[in-house]
Amino acid sequence: MRKKACQKLGETKKRQEQEETSGPCRKRKSTEFLEYLKYIQDTNKENTEIQLKIREQEIILEKQRLDVQQNMQNQMVEQMKMQEESQKAMFNLFQTFMNKFKQS
């Protein structure tokens, strides 16, 4: 009886040593897996929302950039028109002086 008790005690010690070296070995519950999947889904959803917000901001900035560029082009066109009108006026004035000079 004493020999059997010692054998069982020895087996228990070996089992404990094996568990300590191999780490806690436990079966995962299905709820843990579901929680993990939910965490992944929530994280992906948050990342998608963040990416959408960033994209919206990029679109707004791009629109503002295009508006500024369009305004600059419009101003350049207006300046060119004014310059052309100024040149026409100068040319007409020059012609008027030339005609008066020829008549004199």
From TrEMBL:
Give positions of region: Disordered: 1-26
Protein's UniProt name: Uncharacterized protein
